[in-house]
């Protein structure tokens, strides 16, 4: 009991000290904020004694399995379910029971082709509108799947888009979360620009990665402002903003939310890192929630694991929840009258929870740095005889120097006792000095990292050539090059920034007016000399090499390599590439020939689920961030399984030897 009390108090303290931005609150009015589809009431108000008991959503019904990174969903008036499968570059259509009907789109760059669709909406005339995120445009298809039109294209001018995400249709308007430009754009249904709303920032009316939109019947616009962990509400002209929400695990708080929808005057939020669906009124008051955190591997049947989107059927009979992390959707119906849906008895997203490693890794000598994506911290581990022991935690959630929101990029240099963190949500780099124990000692060091400096890309932007005409740089991935330079890859804008050892901008490539050279960049690595930059591009299914000045050198591709998610380079020029959706590791020689591959999907020793970041150890082994399994695995360069560390329930099958020790082909 004492242990549980400690966890709760830690989480409560963290929520109380989280950084919030003062915003104006809406004045009370008589409009309930119901969506455009809500029927008008034909009777007077009911008294408490005559009002029927509410039947809340949240009763598990069934699942749609076999999807590939489903991250957005819509339901039409015929109860057909439209799922944006980013991993297959298509929208899959199902009936209300989850039986497949058809698919829309295919992988590519031309008309009717998609790359990483990230939003979907259905108009009353049956036309399907898709945020074609990798191609930076909106694509429209008719109900049969025939291509109709498209608009947008990479850029910052009105009408141009960078990584469009959620979208919705209200009247003749198409509202799009233009995430890469930190704004919302409103178009008519033919694609003509009506208005742009917002810019990067923390104040009311500003966004940090707007990712979802909804519009009520009064034409108020609700924007899911992900990195600010809030919902902002605007009037029909895009003005008078007010906001509610903050980071945390309690009702009404949010944890890196990914999707929203409106139905019958209620806002449904996919509260991703809290592993739940929250139901709120238009003013942000928490009404109820559903979802229990799936602690055991591949758990489902109503339990949730990083829900990424939610949609409610027009008649309110059921809701569909996407779980991109688990490659599935779950369908929920109505509870019996008056009953509440099941929820977790534990506080979510607290710092004492199990490891949920992010996609990137920093490794140097015996030290390993990994982001903890639920709690916005970085964990430091000590490699000892092939095993890893956590010895420190760095940072906490917040907006001040040394605090993080989505720490994704990591570079570790044990010889210089230096850790650099790419803080994607705050658009900053943080440099820490590490206090290391002598080799052979092993203990937890609470204050191991001391912040020495931060680089704020938002402050740098107005005065720096090459950055002025772009959105604020997001340091998604970082690596150290020759002469202590830092290579910073912004995976949203598809741009590289080269910094010298004083963190001054040396170069930016490609130029702002150029078409981005990559579709969906997922990692960056340098060769042993620190002079060749290798960029993973999941969209093109390739790794492309450049000089540090941005001159293209060569490309690595292979049959079966479809979605490269991580890259590492050995001292002899050998290249290792993880394939996130094929659950494999590919090994290339220095000439680009495939000389090995291993991996199958699963939890056993040597098996993988959505592998991402890679790094070479001093012993010559390959460390793989087995991202979907919440763990890291160590392999020989020939694919022989060595060891594993991470979340307990995901590590146990490998430690028990439940699969072969080598998956090499």
The dominant shape is globular
Strand ordering within the main sheet: 1-28-27-26
CA radius of gyration is 24 Å
Helix content: under 10%
Parts with pLDDT < 50 across at least 5 consecutive residues: 1-49, 660-665
- Number of beta-strand segments: 52
Strand % is: 35-45%
Q: Please give the count of helices.
A: 3
- Look at the helices and sheets and give the structural class: mainly beta
Mean pLDDT: 89
The major β-sheet equals: 4 strands, antiparallel
Distance between the termini: 50 Å
In words, what does this structure look like?
With 665 residues, this protein is mainly beta. The chain contains 3 helices and 52 strands. A 4-stranded antiparallel β-sheet has the order 1-28-27-26, with no helix packed on it. Strands 2-3-4-5 form a 4-stranded antiparallel β-sheet, with no helix packed on it. Strands 8-9-10-11 form a 4-stranded antiparallel β-sheet, with no helix packed on it. A hairpin with a 2-residue loop joins strand 29 and strand 30. The chain is globular, with a radius of gyration of 24 Å.
